[in-house]
Amino acid sequence: MNRKPNPIILAGAALLLAALACALPSTPAPTTEPPPTETPTPFPEASLTPSPEPTSEPSPTPPPGETPPTPTEQVNQCAIVQDLNIRTGPGLAYHTPIGVIQKDAVVQPTSYYPVGVPGGTWALIEAEGSRPGGWIAAGSAYISCNFDLNSLPKVQVEAPPPPRLPRSAQSSDPEGNCYPDSVYGCEVIVTEGSFIQFKLTLDGDELTQNDNVLRVQFNVTRDNENGPEVFASIDNSSAYCIFGGNQPCNPWMLKNNVYYWADGPMLEAGKYFVEILAFVDEGGFTDTIRWAAQFTLELP
Known about the structure:
Strands 9, 10, 14, 15, 19 and 20 form a six-stranded antiparallel β-sheet that branches. Strands 11, 12, 13 and 16 form a four-stranded antiparallel β-sheet that branches. A hairpin with a 4-residue loop joins strand 19 (about 270-280) and strand 20 (about 285-300). By secondary structure, this protein is mainly beta. It is rod-shaped, with a radius of gyration of 57 Å. Helix content is about 5%, strand content about 35%. The N and C termini lie far apart (about 185 Å).
């Protein structure tokens, strides 16, 4: 015979099992930890603070009642290194000085001429007191300036007057075979304009290329017969002139307002020895007639 379970007993067993379940320790379910994350390291930021600007020190305040000094500009001026002539134009070609400025004077030039006539540098100064205004030599040997003279304005100037002719004079007795007992006579004409013209005579008559005069040669040396040669020329026809030409003779060569020995060097004052040789055809041989003397040349 089948017996049905007692419901009371079943209910009690269920309660007992529930109590035991609550008393047992619970095991937590395993958990998966997330991987550690890297924390970025912060970098220091650049400082944008501007550098302090330099400050100028305040100007000292003058004591009460005093006026602060006013800055002054430099005055362009020159000191005269040696006594200088004052001329009407920039150069020795303006040959007559109109005054003198003394050493150690201080001037303020108003104009500058870099290349005078015939050369050199020149500065224009104004009149002061009894001293006239005009041009003075402006080389470093003559004036000392605190500024560049090239910064001065340029001015137009009149051309210089023609130079006066050099003065020449025979300063020794002539030598050679013209004097005193020669068949031929020699005449030397000295002028300021053309220096020397030579005439060869026979019995008082002037001889030319039509009278068998082949040529006339001029030789000029400095100081004496054995000095350095300065000039030489040959004239084949009369009038026999040291610089050529035929009535009148050619004058001294004038270049840039300075006299020259024709196409030779510049004329300088001093002593010169002049030798003149005339070559004459004597029908089979050439006779040489010589005249020579010392000259002194002076420049105006």
